[in-house]
Every structure is written in C-alpha cells, then in structure tokens.
C-alpha cells in the first residue's frame, strides 16, 4: 500500500511540474491565410501571411511556434494607427523573428530584429517599439528581410493579384 501511495504521489508531482512548465502557447488555429508580396529594388517576393486582426489574435501572435516556413509570416492588422512608441514583445515566442512596421499604404517604416524571451513572465521581456507610426506589422523569420534585400521604403502588397511578377 505504501509503495502504491509513493507511486501516485510521484505521478501527481510530475503532473504539477509538467503543467507549470508547459505554459508555452500552441499555434493559433483557424487564422485566415492570404497571399501577399514584398516589393523592393530586388523584385517581388511572394509570401503567405496568417492574418491576426482581433486583439486576442494579435496578443497571441506567433507564441508557441517552433518553426515557420521560409516564405510564411503573420500580418497584424489594426483598425486605427499606432503610435511610434507602440511595439511588440517576444513573450512565449520560441523562434527569432524580424518585424516590419507598415503605414496604411503598405510602406515599411521600420524593421526590427526580435529574439525569443526566456522570462517566465511578460514583464521580463523587452519591447521592440516601431519608432514610426504604423497601422499594420508583419513578422517573418529572422533574416528574411536582409536575405531578400527588403528595407524601409519598400512595400507590402496584399493579394496575389496585386503582386508584380519577377
């Protein structure tokens, strides 16, 4: 009987520890995915973007992802412009990302590199402010913008029909 009790106590403790350590969010389900492209002097780069347009979707963002396809990202859409001091953080985000902050015409105003935050609370994670007013933002894998020579002043076009061919 004592041996059985020890087994159940160890199993329960392990469950509690696992439950406390598994606070990483799972990827979001059911977000719309759209075709888009970045256009720069280097040409047109086709991408696929998950669209986060509600406060809850934007808050969760790419938390919990362990990888993302090279041409995939997330578009954060806002109804009203955000101030230059508004930014993003990497709480519970596991992969390094780059973020482009865009104006209403899809012009990139700034690009920031963001690294995963290992803090157990959001308060321990740095913020990456835009530095310019923006209404949309796009997160891509770290290095995407540099690799494709995309910089401030370049454009994001939504919908494959709006993307010029190379």
Automatic annotation (TrEMBL):
InterPro entries: DUF192, Saro_0823-like_sf
UniProt protein name: DUF192 domain-containing protein
């Amino acid at each position: 009987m004592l041996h059985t009790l020890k087994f159940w106590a160890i199993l329960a403790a392990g469950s509690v520890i696992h439950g406390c350590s598994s606070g990483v969010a799972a990827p979001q389900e059911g977000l719309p995915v759209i075709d888009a492209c970045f256009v720069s002097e280097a040409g047109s780069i086709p991408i696929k973007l998950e669209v986060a347009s509600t406060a809850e979707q934007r808050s969760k963002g790419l938390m919990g992802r362990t990888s993302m396809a090279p041409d995939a990202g997330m578009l954060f859409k806002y109804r009203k412009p955000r101030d230059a001091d508004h930014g993003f953080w990497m709480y519970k985000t596991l992969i390094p990302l780059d973020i482009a902050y865009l104006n209403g015409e899809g012009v990139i105003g700034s690009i920031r590199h963001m690294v995963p935050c290992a803090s157990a609370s959001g308060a321990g994670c740095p913020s990456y402010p835009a530095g310019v007013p923006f209404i949309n933002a796009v997160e891509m894998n770290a290095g995407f913008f540099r690799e494709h020579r995309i910089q401030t002043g370049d454009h994001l076009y939504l919908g494959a029909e709006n993307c010029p061919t190379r």
